[in-house]
C-alpha cells in the first residue's frame, strides 16, 4: 500500500504543482490589492514617501493619481504587471528589475553566510550526542538548555550587540554597509546562531533513536569505526529535520529586515518592507514574486535531498521507525526547570506590585538599583514593573499563536500532496508583510498581529509533519497493520500521531521565543500591540536603540524570554520522560 502510494505521488505530481500556482496567484493578488486594502489613499502614501515634509494638496494628489493611473483600480495594475512589465518605482521613479536584482544578490550572499553559521552551530549543539552515540556510550539524556538559550536570542538584539562590541568597540569587522566578504560576518552570525540552535536542538533529540536501532548495535559488534555509525545515524535522522531548512532559508532572505536595518544592508527583506510601507506596488509585487520563486526552489531542493538520503527503503515501504530509547534523565534537569520557574515567577510577582505606566523623565535610563532592580527605560518607567505586567499578555498570546500554528500545520501536513505547494509559497511571506495585509482589513490590533503570525507560522509544522508522516507510512509495521485489517482511524491514532506529536511539540517550544519577537516587531511597526501596553517583545524593540548606552534596558526582557524558553523545553522533556 505504501509503495503504491509513493509511486502514485511521483507519477501524479500535479496536486503540489497546482497548489504552488494557486497559492502564488492568491498571494500576488493580495499584494496587488494592498494599497486599496489599507484604507488609506495610495496617492497620499506615495506623496509622503517622496516628500515627507511636504503638506499634500488636492492638486498634487490628483497629479499623482493621473501619473500612476490609480483611478483604474487594482485589477488594471495587476494585469499590466502580469503582462511582464515590472515597471518603475512609484516613489523613486527607477526601474524595478535592477533594484530587485541587486537586493536579491545581496540577500542570497547573506543567506549563504548565515547558512554556514547555521550548520556550524547545529553541529556544535549535537556534537556530544554524535560522539557518545557513535561509541555506544549514550546512556544519559540531554537537558536541551543550550539549544533553548541560543534559539531564544532575539536576532535584532544579537545584531546590535555584535555591531557594538565586535564592530565599534573592538573594530574586528565592519558594523555597517555592504562592500565585501568581511561585511557579511556579523550579520551572518546574528542570523545563523539562533537558527542553528533551533535545528541543532531538533537533530539532537532525534539522534539517540538512530543510535539505538538494530543496525547500529550490529555495526558496533562487528567492529566498524565510530565514523561509520555517526555518518549513517545522521543520514537516518537528517530527513526529518531537513524540512525545517525551508522556512529557515526563506526567513534568512525575506525575514531578516531588522538585521538588515541594523547593519544597513540593502537586502530583499528590507526592500520588501520599505516598499510595503510606502505602498510602492511595482517594487512590492516583484519582490514578492522573487521570494515565492525562492521558496519553491528551496522546497524542491529539500525534497530531493530527503529522498536521496532515505533512498530505496522509502520507495519500497521498508523504512524502520525511529523509537527514542529510555535514557537516564540528567540530575540537573529538575533543578534547571525549578530554578527557571522560581526566578520567572519572582520577577513577575515583584513587577506586578509596581506601576508600569508611571513616567519620570528625571529618572531616564537609570542603572539597576534597590529602587529599580532592572533599571528604567528612556521615559523613566520602571522596567521590572513593565516586565511583570506584560508577562501574562506576552506568554498568553505567544502560546495561543504557537498552539494554533502547530495545530494548523499538523492538519495541513497530513495531506502533503495537497498542501506541499501551499506550504512552500506561504513560507516565503514575511510576517511583517502578512501583518500589513491583515491590518488593512482588521485594523492594527493585537488580534490582527496574532492572525498575521498564524497565517505564516504554520508552515514549519506542516513541513515537519509531512516529512515525518512520509517516513512513518513507509515503515514495515504500517504495512503489517494494514494487512491485519487496521483502518485509517486506527493507524492515525496508534501509529501516525504518536510518531509526529513529540517532535512537533519540541519544535513548537523551541520556536516560542521567535513568536514573541515577531509579534513585537509587528507592534513596533504599529500593526500589533500598541503603546504604552507593556509587552516583552515591545520592551526589546523600544530599548534596542539604547543597547550601547544602557544595556540593562534589554537584559530584563531578554533574560525573561530565555527563562521562558528553557522552562518550556525542560518541562516538556520531563513530562515526556515521566510518561
TrEMBL record:
It comes from the Bacteria. GO terms for biological process: transmembrane transport. Gene3D superfamilies: MetI-like. It is a multi-pass membrane protein. The chain crosses the membrane at residues 12-37, 100-126, 147-172, 184-203, 241-263, 283-305, 333-353, 391-413, 425-458, 549-569. PROSITE patterns: ABC_TM1. It is found in: Cell membrane. Keywords: Cell membrane, Membrane, Transmembrane, Transmembrane helix, Transport. GO terms for cellular component: plasma membrane. The keyword DNA repair does not apply. Signal peptide: none annotated. Belongs to the binding-protein-dependent transport system permease family. PANTHER family: D,D-DIPEPTIDE TRANSPORT SYSTEM PERMEASE PROTEIN DDPC-RELATED (PTHR43386:SF1), OLIGOPEPTIDE TRANSPORT SYSTEM PERMEASE PROTEIN APPC (PTHR43386). This is ABC transporter permease component. It comes from Streptomyces lincolnensis. The lineage of its organism: Bacteria, Bacillati, Actinomycetota, Actinomycetes, Kitasatosporales.
